Amino acid sequence: MLNQTKPDPVRSPLLDKARAQGIRHGYFTRTGGISEGIYRSLNIGSGSNDNQALVAENRARVATWMGVPASHLLTAWQIHSPDVIVAHEPFAGERPKADAIVTDRPGIAVGASTADCGPVLFADSQARVIGAAHAGWKGAFTGVLENTIAAMESLGARRENIIAVLGPSIGPQNYEVGPEFVARFVEADAGNNRYFAASAKPSHAMFDLNLYTVDRLAKAGVTAEGLGRCTYAEEDLFYSYRRATHRKEPDYGRQVSAIVLETE
Questions:
Q1: 109 and 32: one domain?
Q2: How many domains are contained in the chain?
Q3: Which of 33, 65, 115, 208 could bridge to 172 as Cys pair (CB 3.0-4.6 Å)?
Q4: Cα(162)–Cα(123) distance, rounded to whole angstroms?
């Protein structure tokens, strides 16, 4: 599968329904690129230590699949924040620091780069407004999902018409956290206890980031679902920061999830 020469992203059946309205999306895997070693093959991580010429070619392949020039595949400099930017045109110079991008401009693909955190793609096919958010635990906890919805509304979207789908991210069976992590969530809302299960390690717990993310989206008033794909477990398809850390590897690749309003 890693020998494929073209990307073959995972798709959401829910978002695929928006294709009739000219909205294209893909949760890209690590297949279809040219990177080697620990980065094989479709590493789009410009923040990785991979050969940046290879990263640029990988990003160009993603852009081609999305139907846009490489310059029109936009990902932010992600900082695990609740911050969202509105994109009207390709970025000039250094990428802005944020964790979500929304747009109403055809021909601009907005994306989220991940390696365990949750990539969430948003679409209001009636208003033709789309978004992409990088939602790790910190971003989700501090409001990046709700802020993305609000930014889409500023462009004319209606939250009751927004579809939001969480793509491949680390599953609860592989996301062990410490007591301070659990306390942070439970102190914020006692109901958050439901997202934690017992761990084999004393005083630790297994965290269900997927369910937490989808529940926050649903509470915000959008139609939400998760694909239920685990980046840690599916090594042939996805990069994983935590898996690389457990193996004491020096670095890790990143996959991208993107969505675009196709031009007429």
A1: yes
A2: 2
A3: 208
A4: 5
Q: Are residues 202 and 217 in the same domain?
A: no
| SS3 of residue 83 by DSSP | coil
> pLDDT tens digits, the chain, 264 residues: what are they?
556 679 999 999 999 988 878 999 999 999 999 999 999 999 999 999 999 999 999 999 999 999 999 999 999 999 999 999 999 999 998 999 999 999 999 999 999 999 999 999 999 999 999 999 999 999 999 999 999 999 999 999 999 999 999 999 999 999 999 999 999 999 999 999 999 999 999 999 999 999 999 999 999 999 999 999 999 999 999 999 999 999 999 999 999 999 999 986
Query: Do 109 and 192 reside in the same domain of the chain?
Result: no
Task: Kindly give, in sequence order, each residue whose CB lies less than 8 Å from that of residue 26, ignoring residues fewer than 6 positions away.
Answer: 7, 9, 10, 11, 62, 65, 66, 257, 258
Q: Is 99 exposed, middle or buried (0-12, 13-18, 19+ CB in 10 A)?
A: buried
> Phi and psi of 130, rounded to 5°?
-130, 165
Give the amino acid at 114: T
Same domain, 93 and 192: no
Residue 174, token pair as written in the block: 């592989």
CATH number (domain holding residue 217): 3.60.140.10
Cα–Cα distance for residue pair 257/3, rounded to 1 Å: 20
Tally of CB atoms within 10 A around 4: 14
The residue among 161, 159, 201, 155 whose CA lies nearest residue 179 is 201
Range of the domain at 21: 13-169+213-261
**Whether 39 and 70 share a structural domain:** yes
